What we know:
The protein is an alpha/beta fold. The model has no long low-confidence stretch (mean pLDDT 96).
Amino acid sequence: MASDIEIAQQATLKRVTQIAAERLGIADEHLEPYGHYKAKISLNYLDSLKSRPNGKLILVTAISPTPAGEGKTTTTVGLGDALNRIGKKAVICLREPSLGPVFGVKGGAAGGGYAQVVPMEDINLHFTGDFSAIALANNLLAAMLDNHIHHGNELGIDVRRITWKRVVDMNDRALRDIVASLGGTGNGFPRQDGFDIVVASEVMAIFCLATSIADLKERLGNIVVGYTREQKAVTARDLKAHGAMAVLLKDALAPNLVQTLENNPAILHGGPFANIAHGCNSVIATQAGLKLGDYVVTEAGFGADLGAEKFIDIKCRKSGLRPDCVVVVATIRALKFHGGVDLKSLNSENLDALEKGIANLERHVRNVREHYGLPCVVSINNFTADTPAELALLQQKMGTHGVPVIVARHWAEGGKGAEDVARAVVDIIENGTQKADFRFVYEDDLPLLDKVRAVAQKIYGAADVTADAKVRQQIARLEADGYGHYPVCIAKTQYSFSTDANAKGAPSGHTINVREVRLGAGAEFIVMVCGDIMTMPGLPKVPSAEKIDLDESGRVVGLF
């Protein structure tokens, strides 16, 4: 079997202007091409579509991720291709990849096998420069903050209470905790500082939640960068930085159009991680897809306890979007891993481990149906080592939940291999075979720590939430300052329902400890950092970057 990059490089792509015209009815003048195979769609054109009715929204999520792989993005692409194959006008909406995981732990965000978005190399490496623009806007604000302090500090900013960090789109553990401004008075006031990865930044969150240039600028102005000695918040607007930040982001805010291997339209835009941020592509891109297609297939990062919860409680709450159906992705291999099988033994049949691991899938399905109030389908991403007995056990166990469990083979067969999943989704949406009763996990007026407790107890199966006195004081101050109605964005490990990455399956009765609180006044949510999760990841012992190269003809090799 060819590698992902080999499959992508052998594909026959259509020019993006042809995809836009033939599949979406977008004329050339509404596109800004970046070469032949990717383009930005004009925001003015998208504004002209507001009177069109919306299509149906399908959210793809997954079980808790494992090293065995689940294939959520692959399923999103395969399902979009499958919907088009069965006669539906479908648009795929995905996040853009971060260079952190591309060069770190093997895994981009373009799908895999015969269910990919292309041009794969461009998408995984720089793409249209959106992440660079986000990083520059973030770091411009940091530079203007330090410059203001250096030139007299008219706003009276307390250098001990600066909260704004610089960012870089790379895994670099050496930048997590640093001392800045050494070297004398000309370089500013020395202080302890640190970097985050771009996909964890508030500017990324704002970029993905803004609905227009005006909304973007307003949100950027609301960013709180630090406090005075009197505990008064200092904003980007106070520093007069938000206008220039918006200028840097102006072109990036237009969503990016590419295609799948089967020449179906895909919109890729924004890319916050779901373990340390809200994990969804931009509201602008999703809304564009809903105006341009009859069906939109989008994804939320990691498991349904992280990405899907934030899709519901943050993105839907802020935008008014409502999914019509959810697809929960799993693999037999990953479920056996959750049941205690080590990586080397996953290709061997093990019904006992599978039965134990199914508990993880069951909790995700219950969360989707009972706590998000949404109908769902379970899509099993097929591996050749899956046995009939394992598939039968999974069908039997999940049959008690009243959801379709469908084996999909899109990785090997493209859209054809996901047609059964597509038909099941269409049946739910068009024939109402499962009842929808959309709801949030918590209401706006609940105290902030109680919002975390609601997610922890309902979604994670936790017994309670803890926080030390300093964190509780921060939360009380945020509520006193008028931020108590904001949703919470919980940053924790993606590998478990708990904060212990090694607790597989469906652990219950654990405690979620909130160790840090971050205000996102522009994004309009509060980040609750739990456990030992880092907002600046590190590279593994053998990073993927060691395998990525150019061959003698200048082609990229080793990229998945």
